[in-house]
Specification:
This protein is mainly α. It folds into 2 domains: 6-266, ABC transporter involved in vitamin B12 uptake, BtuC (Orthogonal Bundle), CATH 1.10.3470; 272-317. Helices cover 78% and strands 2% of the residues. The chain has a two-stranded antiparallel sheet. The protein starts with 5 loop residues before the first helix and ends with a helix.
Amino acid sequence: MGFLTPNIIETAVNTGLIYGCVALSLFISFTILNICDLSTDGCYILGAAVGVSVTIAGHPILAIFAGMAAGVCSGFVTAFLQTRLRVPDILAGIVVNTGLYTINLMVMGLRTNLNIVGTDTVFSMFESLNDSAFWQGWSDTILLLMIVAALCLFIYWFLTTRLGLSIRATGDSAPMVRASSINPAFTITVGLCLSNSFTGLAGCLIGQYTKTAEINQGTGMVTIALASLIIGQMIFGRGPMMVRIIGTVVGSVLYRFIIAIALRLNVPTQAFRLVSAVIVAIAIAAPAIRDFVRFSIRKRSVMRVHRAERKGGETHA
């Protein structure tokens, strides 16, 4: 048996693509708007709870849009607290995340989990389009690639529109935007609603992919998304917008491969949060470590040249 079997690779890619939607959410809120939105965990479960509930009712495709709409509502409340009630962004996210715990329980009928085994999902419907062995094995991956590619293209297009450019400017300098007769409260609201819709989409997709929604399923999602975002930035750098967007998704997939390797190394699942924290710490510290290594190499090179010059001077004397 290989270290990473095709099944493990497929699962890592699929979950990485789904988590990539959350990473894209943080790309908008954290990277573009410069807002730390800590409501991501609760919004992720909200999308899963709403999506699974609608799927149980027999509408798996409608569930996708319902999950995104639920994310929009979560983002609106978070933005309202920040822009209208002047609550700091970190506290606003914590407040919304705390309130969503009870709301998610209510959506799931006051149960801690919902199961949709035996119910049609977008994945089973897409799989039924072809009977070939390749399609049956990789249809989930193909569908997720199509969804994530559509999201990346949409984000790239949206950020080049007048509204998208205003959102980007708000993240750079809200006072400058206000001086340009643009309402930063509006741009922040639109940005957070959009970003949280991607989180709701991810929750709905994971609910249909795993055929379950569990109340604690989103715990640590902010850390996972942040790790994916930073890994992508570390690899692709701060290049053109499309490169940064694609890098975010690639970082999410790479993160899942790191977790898959940890699983194969028999790292206990209880330690995954520690693994995530270490990944984030390494990714954040990577530029500083790289600069330190370059400085050390340059310093040794200069000292070597000085020693050679000194030795040559002594020999000449």
